[in-house]
User: What shape does this take?
Amino acid sequence: MFRPSHSLTVGNAKLTLEEGLRAIAGGETEIDLSDVVAVDSAAVATLLAWQVAAMNQGLTLHFSSLPANLESLIDLYGVTDLLAPAAVVVAASTRHH
Assistant: This one.
């Protein structure tokens, strides 16, 4: 399981993206975001890039323990379906609008 650090923002997105891509290249299919506290739009872009990398390898990527602020950005940008499977979809469907 790959677990990014507490921040996933424009300041460290490139490094975190590369770390995640290496994990995915090694066959990792679970990304645990429980330590992530600070996010911005770069976090959403990073998750999308990881998802594409996994799909290109024929892997199904799962994101777990998404922080609420990241869930909000994913919803705001309308990419929940692109980041599915279940972890993101379930989280999005349980929020009240």
